[in-house]
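Chain entry —
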Amino acid sequence: MSKPTAKAPGRHGGQGQLRIIGGEWRSRRFVFPDGPGLRPTPDRVRETLFNWLAPYVEGARVLDPFAGSGALFLEALSRGAREGLALDTNGEAVAALRNHLDALKTGTAK
């Protein structure tokens, strides 16, 4: 049996999906470009993480230095972070995250 020579397309036709699990934007769904190593933190992991961080997120300034899909960054803003900065080297992911922030009409994130 021969090995495939081309990479199989992403599960969502070149796009991944993420869902905000808590806060102001709870249940909002976003798409982001599929790419190698680019995947959102699973819902259960984010829920556990933000349950631990709940006392510190409200009113906080957040930094997501390896934002990727933006799942953690958007979750923090949804849960009341005052402002934030997300960074990533994947230009398509950064553009998608900017579009999400524009759609949410938030002026507190870069």
Notes: The chain has a mean pLDDT of 86.
